[in-house]
């Protein structure tokens, strides 16, 4: 099965960002600032700072991905119950006929927006930690329409829907149970996956059908104590005592005294991917797991001197990892982080500075990843009931 790439849609102005950061703000603002100040090894898309709301741009991106052997997109979905943000790419996908588009599924970025990465605990967009039955039903009705699209990915006949942060909710079991009951009432059964970003996310595995090991965040978390179950329990206790806003302020204060930027070696990251410690975590999940691989990471545009970075992997090494791991979980597509998350230095989209080296490497993997017609890819992902 060809790997999928995560699609990051934050590259066009929206009213929420206008109010929070100034009119016209997008993540390009952060990338341009880091480039101008030479804070990092420069990068920017080959096509320039494009408008991510334009259908023509979406079509070009899908064509480039298909030519490189990318099987489809895992699209970040920003749903806040009161409204839906940054949905231009979703709307394009919903309009595309089967033959013109790529397979896709949604990854719900299930957490609120804040200024924490700027050292400010102010909440910009609130995502309720305990949504009502009516709110959940409204969301499920929207998702049901997405699931019906002929290019929407199915695993063993069920639409795949991934949650970025199950731990955001005060009672994850209640919330996930309510979603499943609502989908059942709508005549739908759904394959629910979670992103495992820290060791304490393992505790949510019994609630989902499968797990995505979200690298390199999981790797970063496993290098220290911040990702431990004990740390999660302390955080939950602080939330109960002082509330989420108070806890956010404490976390911002901790960020301010944290060490300055840190870069992790790519060779050590590759070793970690096959380590016994990581395998033990996978075993503890007790359910199917699939990888989210990355060619590198650098969030300097967001965090400045407090950055976290993973050295760029050599393209041939990255391609070998994909070739080794794409069949690790039956029916669950391997993910690449990411197609275009430029503001965190994780992009395989053609780059003005780095060229197309990662796309070329993927296309020429030892087991060739030939671009597949949409129908063929869908067949490989779906088993009819």
What does this 3D model show about the protein?
The structure is a single chain. Strands 1-2-4-8-9-10-12-15 form an 8-stranded parallel barrel. Strands 11-14-13 form a 3-stranded mixed sheet. Strands 5-6 form a two-stranded antiparallel sheet. By secondary structure, the chain is of the alpha/beta class. The chain starts with a strand and ends with a helix. Helix 5 packs across helix 6 (172-185) and helix 12 (315-325) packs across helix 13. 39% of the residues lie in helices and 15% in strands. The radius of gyration is 20 Å and the shape is globular. The protein is built from 14 helices and 15 strands. The longest helix has 29 residues, at 229-257. It has one domain: TIM Barrel (Alpha-Beta Barrel).
Secondary structure layout plus pairing:
Elements: E1 4-7, H1 15-21, H2 27-36, H3 55-67, E2 72-79, E3 84-85, H4 88-95, E4 104-108, E5 113-114, E6 123-125, H5 133-147, E7 154-155, E8 158-163, H6 172-185, E9 191-196, E10 210-214, H7 217-221, H8 229-257, E11 262-264, H9 266-273, H10 276-285, E12 288-293, E13 297-298, H11 300-303, E14 308-310, H12 315-325, E15 335-336, H13 357-363, H14 374-381
Helix pairs in contact: 5-6, 12-13
CATH topology: TIM Barrel
Which CATH first-tier class would you pick? Alpha Beta
Order of helices and strands: EHHHEEHEEEHEEHEEHHEHHEEHEHEHH
Mean pLDDT: 88
Q: Please give the alpha-carbon distance between the first and last residues.
A: 20 Å
Q: Which shape, going by the Cα principal axes?
A: globular
Strands, total number:
15
Radius of gyration: 20 Å
**Weakly predicted, low-confidence segments:** 370-385
What structural category arises from helix and sheet content?
Answer: alpha/beta
Number of helices, where a helix is a run of at least 4 consecutive DSSP H or I residues: 14
CATH architecture: Alpha-Beta Barrel
Spatial order of the strands in the main sheet? 1-2-4-8-9-10-12-15
> How much β-strand is present in the residues?
15-25%
CATH superfamily: Glycosidases
For the biggest sheet, the summary is: 8 strands, parallel, barrel
Domain tally: 1
Helix content class: 25-40%
């Amino acid at each position: 099965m060809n790997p999928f790439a995560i699609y990051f849609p934050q590259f066009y102005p929206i009213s929420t960002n206008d109010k929070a950061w100034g009119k016209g703000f997008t993540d390009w603002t952060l990338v341009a600032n880091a480039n101008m100040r030479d804070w990092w090894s420069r990068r920017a898309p080959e096509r320039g700072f494009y408008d991510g709301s334009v259908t023509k741009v979406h079509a070009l991106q899908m064509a480039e991905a298909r030519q490189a052997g990318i099987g489809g997109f895992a699209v970040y979905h920003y749903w806040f119950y009161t409204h839906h943000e940054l949905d231009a790419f979703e709307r394009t996908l919903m309009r595309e006929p089967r033959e013109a588009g790529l397979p896709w599924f949604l990854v719900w970025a299930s957490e609120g927006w804040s200024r924490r990465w700027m050292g400010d605990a102010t909440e910009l967009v609130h995502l309720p930690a305990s949504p009502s039955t009516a709110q959940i039903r409204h969301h499920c009705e929207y998702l049901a329409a997405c699931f019906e699209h002929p290019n929407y990915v199915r695993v063993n006949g069920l639409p795949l829907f991934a949650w970025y942060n199950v731990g955001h909710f005060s009672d994850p079991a209640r919330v996930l149970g309510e979603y499943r009951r609502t989908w059942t009432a709508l005549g739908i059964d759904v394959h629910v996956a979670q992103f495992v970003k820290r060791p304490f996310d393992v505790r949510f595995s019994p609630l989902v059908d499968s797990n995505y090991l979200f690298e390199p965040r999981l790797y970063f978390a496993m290098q220290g104590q911040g990702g431990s179950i004990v740390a999660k329990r302390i955080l939950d206790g602080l939330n109960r005592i002082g509330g989420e806003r108070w806890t956010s302020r404490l976390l911002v204060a901790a960020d301010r005294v944290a060490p300055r930027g840190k870069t992790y070696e790519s060779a050590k990251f590759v070793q970690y991917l096959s380590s016994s410690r990581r395998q033990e975590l996978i075993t503890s999940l007790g359910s199917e797991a699939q990888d989210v691989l990355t060619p590198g990471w650098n969030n300097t545009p967001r965090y400045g001197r407090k950055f976290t970075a993973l050295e760029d992997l050599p393209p041939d090494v990255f391609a070998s990892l994909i070739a080794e791991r794409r069949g690790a979980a039956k029916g669950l597509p391997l993910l690449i982080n990411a197609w275009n998350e430029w503001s965190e230095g994780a992009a395989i989209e053609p780059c003005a500075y780095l060229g197309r080296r990662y796309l070329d490497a993927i296309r020429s993997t030892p087991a060739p990843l030939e671009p597949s017609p949409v129908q063929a890819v869908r067949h490989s992902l779906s088993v009819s009931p």
